[in-house]
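ok posting inputs for the FE2/S2 (inorganic) cluster job
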Amino acid sequence: MKVLNKEVLTENQGVRVVKLIILAPDIARKAKAGQFVVLMVKEEGERIPLTIVNTDIVKGTITIIAQEAGFTTKLLARAAEGESLYSIVGPLGHPTEIKKYGKVILVGGGVGIAEIYPVAKAMKQAGNFVTAIIGSRSKELLILERELKEACDELIVMTDDGSYGRKGFVTEALKELLEKSKQDLVYAVGPIPMMKAVSMVTKPFGVHTLVSLNALMVDGTGMCGCCRVSVGGKVKFSCVDGPEFEASEVDWQELQKRNSVYNEKEKHICQLKKL
Ligand SMILES: Cc1cc2nc3c(=O)[nH]c(=O)nc-3n(C[C@H](O)[C@H](O)[C@H](O)COP(=O)(O)OP(=O)(O)OC[C@H]3O[C@@H](n4cnc5c(N)ncnc54)[C@H](O)[C@@H]3O)c2cc1C
Ligand code: FES
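and the output
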């Protein structure tokens, strides 16, 4: 659980994203694309879920990429090389179903770009034609462009302000691709409004669309109910039933509401702890 390496990927416009390489040989050996860990930075802290972005079985390491959102991600970003995290559990969640679909589009927004990277590599390895569409508010906030260029057949970069790649949202490029040719799978990770928009774009095309949900989690074992989401009118727990679900079936409004419950409280904690 020792942090072997820490790198700041971006620090701009109030957004700070860090990459940590952590010694966790058992997790590295078992992890598959789409899975995540739940970690605690300190004993008195909370548990947070983070995607396993990469593994190195030989070195026994996993890579995680975290955007500072609140108390725990800020603590994590301050962990020094050589320091040990208090606890880390994983791999959790169902792995992504990797097979030959044909043409696969992966859509990543913000730190969601980190989460599509392992899926891109696995989908490519399974013989798919993989297109990644990645988007950020501006050039400075874009992560893993080089890595995704290597992993995919095609990479489209979008920025909200047009400072790099094409100006506009990832959904614009997605719609154009769907209009141009038949696609077999769309896989999206990003902020809830982005995943909801992807779902609305793909629906008329009838293309199988998966989203990896970022529901709030506590125990990660299906016991506490914190990550409850409504999918296809049924109650699901993101940690054990997901984190991936068919996009058109997700109750986005409920998810957004549940995920913002602690916003004000978290701001308060960060101010108290001077983070
Ligand atoms: C399966 C899974 C994989 C994830 N992978 C990554 C990843 O690879 N990299 C990454 O940066 N983040 C990832 N997240 C989101 C990450 O868990 C949250 O950003 C983190 O829990 C925030 O903790 P915090 O204490 O720093 O922030 P908090 O203080 O708890 O929250 C700060 C803000 O973030 C929102 N928030 C809190 N938790 C979540 C959450 N789980 N999802 C969305 N918004 C949240 C709050 O509503 C609030 O607005 C993942 C979430 C899940 C469920
Ligand atoms: S995090 Fe507790 S049930 Fe999923």
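notes: Residues 217-220, 222-227, 237-239 surround FE2/S2 (inorganic) cluster (ligand 2) (CB under 6 Å). The chain has a mean pLDDT of 93.
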